[in-house]
Amino acid sequence: LKPSQLYSRLRRSSGGMTKILKRLEEAGYVSRSPDPDDGRGMRVTLTDRGRSLQERVFHAFLASTTSLMAPLTSHQVEAANKSLSELLDLFEQRASDRSGANGGRS
Asked: Which helix (H) or strand (E) segment is 38 a member of?
């Protein structure tokens, strides 16, 4: 991803995102490299260490969510999933609208 896509999705300032990316890169979770499509830009990618962390966090989140939703009926789980999916779509649309209104910048 481009850093601008990250700070738009995460609702961070470009300066704040730059600091976060620097720390993540220093910790070995991401790497930054020149964008082959835009000589002025950068691309951010997960390293093997970053992918490993992402997988551990995802599995912990999944286990926690499964435990939390265990008392719900299948109908309640479906309704919650539908509502959360719609909410995420709205957030993504708003982020996309803001990005477009700011010329790709947030």
From this structure: strand 38-46
Residue 19 CB: number of other CB atoms within 10 A?
A: 11
CA gap 40, 2 in Å, rounded: 11
Domain boundaries, the chain: 3-101
CATH 1.10.10.10 applies to domain 3-101: yes
- pTM (2 d.p.): 0.62
Q: What are the beta bridge partners of residue 44?
A: 32
19 near 7, Cβ under 8 Å?
no
Query: Using one digit for the tens of pLDDT, what is the confidence trace for 29-88?
Result: 999 999 888 878 889 999 999 999 999 999 999 999 999 999 999 999 999 999 999 998
What is the C-alpha separation between 104 and 106, in angstroms, rounded? 7
Residue in 68, 92, 94, 97 with CA at minimum distance from that of residue 81: 68
